[in-house]
MoxR-like ATPase (Kitasatospora paracochleata), 335 residues
Amino acid sequence: MTSYNGQGAAAGASQREPVGLTELAAIVDRVRASVESVIEGKPEAVRIALTVLLAEGHLLLEDVPGVGKTMLAKALARSVDCTVRRIQFTPDLLPSDVTGTNVFDQHRRDFEFRPGAIFAQIVVGDEINRASPKTQSALLESMEERQVTIDGTSYELPSPFMVVATQNPVEMEGTYALPEAQRDRFMARVSIGYPSAEAEFAMLDLHSAANPLDDLQPVAHAHDLLKLIDLVKTVFVSDPVRRYAVQLVASTRTSPELRLGASPRATLHLVRAARAHAALDGRDYVLPDDIQSLAVPVLAHRLLPTSETQLSRRTAEQVVLDLVARLPIPRPQGR
């Protein structure tokens, strides 16, 4: 019998932990523990953040003010020994503040490039939808191509590179809706949500005396992340699971409840995230369960419901869950 791991080995042999995943688990556990020492009671949000980090994606944290979006982004950034820059998006922020600009040097009598805040390995974009669409668009090239072009010259961004952006719901005052092209570049969107009563009670002790971020120290290095990212790329995805991902994304384009479905980039992001999700579970192959677990965070923010869907108070998340429930799960090869 050949299963999703595509190895055709005996059951006992297929359950052996692949070389490299032990190291991955140890490093990820340290980063997870570091972040969760600051963010109480949100293990799923932390797991999605780590999944996106290992899949070389970008993360969008969306929720009402005061639930810990920026705290999560900063805790993740401080837990890894990478260069970190924070951008506070405001209505008067200029694109050149993000990407950089050429400045004339009087001594050299020539223009010199001054890098902007985007030139870091982890970029924390706070309240991204409070900047104008023009400034938001300054991130498009860097998030997709990992480079910045100024006056015809392209500058490579460091590796690894990840944008962790926070935003308030569009209904909030002083916000601009992110363009579809911008949302499509985020691998996943996570809503933090309010903490449980127990977590909020524990937070009173943790955050009252001092800022817990001050005590965070890096528990992983940039070169460790690069090794883990390369390891995640080797996670096997069988043809049935690939087709399942393609069919799931394609179903969003034909759904009568949506006026805009997910793009082919969404399919790539879904499979890449599924590889990281499987690696976090100690597997070197992807299951349909990985695709299903990531369908909402990876796909929902890219979709535009029809006006009828909105009038019936159905969200894009609910539409995705219905599509997942209706789509047949692929059977393992050889059955």
Remarks:
- The longest strand covers residues 100-105.
- Residues 8-19 have pLDDT under 50 and may be disordered.
- The first helix runs from residue 11 to 14.
